[in-house]
Amino acid sequence: MKLESTEQLTQLLQREYGNIAGILVQKNGSVLYEKYFNDITAGNALHVYSVTKSVFSALIGIAIGKGYLHSVDQKVLEFFPGYAVPKGETVLQTVTLRHLLTMTAPYKCETEPYAEFFASENWVNFALGLLGGTKQPGAFCYSPIVGSHLLSGILAQATGQPILQFANEVLFEPLGIRVPQSIFLHSEEEHFAVMNDKNTTGWVADPKGLNAASWGLFLTVRDMAKFGQLYLNGGQWGGKQLVPASWVAESTAVHSHWGALGYGYLWWVTGKGSFAALGDGGNAIYVNAANGMVVAIASLFAPEVKDRITLIKETIEPLFSAAN
Q: Could you report the per-residue pLDDT of 191-248, keeping only the tens digit for each?
């Protein structure tokens, strides 16, 4: 839909995208549009769901750049030497970080058993128990929550630090992003209560204190835009190289496919020069290197929402295409 003004954009969002909480559009580092809805303000952090995965991808890249990790081809079991591999299990021993990052690791289940996972005392061991089976690595198999949590265990083992401490030191604090605490959820009711709570800040952690690699991070819209701008800048911020430039390029290139959509290292590749961090309910950080644009959208959870990439590509980008 072609629009002529930001006023028309605001009206469209209110009319057809009712769960959007905030949106920020910037081009070449300049904010062109920032708007909030549903009693949310610029200071409110919201749960960004699987956008967390792309942030975690950056942490993996930083850990490689600092020498904590050697490469994405390291075997997963290298980081869990005490894990008792089931007799006859051979596939598990071939799975690498690359498979986890590209969603090409094999699992013994068709759908992730969330209830059992959350009820377990050791989320990493539970996830290890699902990894492998009879399928070989290589086919795209999206892990919304459980399998991706192995990356949390790997990062903690590699750095020897709590994940939130590491993330604050190397990423959040340099960007001016406030993630003050780990959030522990003790019941299903508590879990759902915080998901749309505008007063919650922090990052969900498992019973062992490992922050979740695939969900659970609370960010403001401006935080999301900063992270997108960081990647648009090739990993540089404030004159410092926070994320290795090689990792930014490699992690936003296509390594696997879900249908016609490309997938990098926990990033969706949405076109030539464009990529996005996408989360349930319509949360998105979209980056287009070709036109210098970053679009951040935070949303309250809703089970079915209109596609944000379509909104960005067909409506938002054309509206702001002439801006410097």
A: 888 887 889 999 999 999 999 999 999 999 999 999 999 999 999 999 999 999 999 9
User: Any idea which residue has 């702001």 for tokens?
Assistant: 320
CA distance 270 to 273: 8
Interval 123-141: pLDDT, tens: 999 999 999 988 899 999 9
Q: What contacts 30, CB < 8 A, 6 or more positions away? A: 323, 324
Burial of residue 88, with CB atoms counted within 10 A of its CB: 0-12 exposed, 13-18 middle, 19 or more buried: exposed
Q: Are 262 and 86 in contact (CB under 8 A)?
A: no
**Gyration radius (Cα) of the chain, Å:** 19
What's the gap between Cα 322 and its chain centre? 30
- Could you tell me the pTM of the whole model? 0.97
Sort 99 into a burial class: Cβ within 10 Å, 0-12 / 13-18 / 19+: buried
What angle in degrees, to the nearest 10, is found between the helix axes of 221-232 and 51-65?
A: 50
